[in-house]
Amino acid sequence: MPRTATRAPTPDWTDPDCPVARTLDLVGDRWSLLVIRDAMDGARSFTEFQRRTGIARNILTDRLRKLTAHGVLAQRTAPSGRRREYVLTDAGRDLFPVIVTLRQWGERHAFAPGETHSTLVDQHGTPVPEIVPAGADGTPLGADTTQVRKV
């Protein structure tokens, strides 16, 4: 199903024809991904994001504005009615497999053997299985079995 672009092409794109480059232009810095990670984990307020990430207020303000402007987050009135909160949009929730894949890569390559780290589990407490891209026939895909076709 086709998706609606979150932003029309601009001269600011790193590589206007590459979906990877455009995605990185929108969410590719560490602070944006940590804000998205924490939103997926239930953070909603500016204070929660700052406490969880340790990010400086000015940088957090910038990232929240950028993620909101590009349709990854939306602002709404909190249930208390006193504050605004940030929630993931459909586009933001679509980043879940990206966050899981980054997490799984980190589990394999960013920790020494036996070093403790957090684990992502499903609602039953079972660790989330490794995400592996697969072709239409179910065959696992990798860098050696795929290619970019410029259109």
UniProtKB/TrEMBL annotation:
**MF (Gene Ontology):** DNA binding
Question: Where is the HTH hxlR-type domain positioned along the sequence?
Answer: 18-114
Q: What protein name is recorded for this chain? A: DNA-binding HxlR family transcriptional regulator
Q: Name one Pfam family in it.
A: HxlR
Q: Where is this region: Disordered?
A: 132-151
InterPro entries noted in UniProt: HTH_HxlR (IPR002577), WH-like_DNA-bd_sf (IPR036388), WH_DNA-bd_sf (IPR036390)
- Swiss-Prot/TrEMBL keywords: DNA-binding, Transcription, Transcription regulation
Gene3D superfamilies found in the cross-reference section: Winged helix-like DNA-binding domain superfamily/Winged helix DNA-binding domain
Q: Show the PANTHER family listed in the entry.
A: TRANSCRIPTIONAL REGULATOR, MARR FAMILY (PTHR33204), TRANSCRIPTIONAL REGULATORY PROTEIN (PTHR33204:SF18)
